[in-house]
Design goal:
CATH superfamily: Aldolase class I
CATH topology: TIM Barrel
Number of helices: 15
Distance between the termini: 50 Å
Radius of gyration: 20 Å
CATH class: Alpha Beta
Largest sheet: 3 strands, parallel
CATH architecture: Alpha-Beta Barrel
Strand order of the largest sheet: 8-1-9
Number of domains: 1
Structural class: alpha/beta
Shape: globular
Number of strands: 9
Amino acid sequence: MIYDPTADDLKRKVWQGERIDAEEAMRLYRLPLSELGSLADRRRQIAKADQYNGKGDEIVTYILDRNINYTNICNVYCKFCAFYRTEKDLDSYVISHEELDGKIDEMLEVGGSQILLQGGHHPKLNMDWYLDLLTHLEEKYPQVNVHGFSPSEFVHFREVFGLPLQEIIGKFQEAGLGSIPGGGGEILVDKVRKRISPLKAMSDEWLEVMDTAHRLGLNSSATMMFGHVESVEDRIEHLDRIRVQQDRSGGFTAFICWTFQSENTRLKAPPCGANEYLRMLALSRIYLDNIDNAQSSWVTQGLEIGQIALTYGANDLGSIMMEENVVSQAGTVYHMKENDMHRLIHDLGCEPRRRNNWYQLLN
């Protein structure tokens, strides 16, 4: 390989915390993994320098919450999903208030503070069903944040309810919705989305929901699922669209990326290993210079890679995942308890701290 002196200039630019463009991102992607990881760790340090009373670089956060899928009935039939069912399937369901309460009570017993509430695109549930659910949660569990309903669900609601997005999200917010997850992002490039989920929200629609929510005062996360039919250029375009949206509305609290899990799905692709996961995590940390927090996806990568990710740009271990149905249906099952998180974080010489959805420390 011929020595490229401009690579040193680019690495110096990253080290100093300057913004990079898409062409520079592609050059960084081609660096040796260890070099890219060091640059991402540097950017993590820059992002966390002023947080938590000057201890941001010493603290690794996590959250105790529970994933609750309120229905598995869905009419978009994504090729990468093994979770969805049709209304005719014997194992299809819609959760009852009693079932929901039981799950939340179990979470509260272990100190949880949030539920991640998502479901399939049910063709028949009306707005009153969702508002009744949120009102019930707000009245019975006011201490629990409802982190619920991904952008693709809101686009679905707009079609079913026949109302503007702002009105729908506003009504959900009034009923008790606290924040929005970044699910359904996959790759924000329409030529990719048309191949893997043609009936689901397209890129502009996904971003429109986020823009509307942020302007109403609701924060959200941003995500990327990669390693299926997309190119590296598509991944960088995805990151760029998220960065542009964050410049515009500023409501993303965190970024989470993970690799496609193909077992039990109709969409088949060669496994995307730990090397590629760490490479994209590192590149994401560098490119998304306006999003403070990056989560480690131990749920798809396992505990050991989840720990290593904390040296490749991630500053958060996400959730203990008290309940997880979507990734596990696709064939990947990892489990972690709170003491496991503490051990992984302590092993890196850092301090484990519980947080809420807004990355405020709880303990």
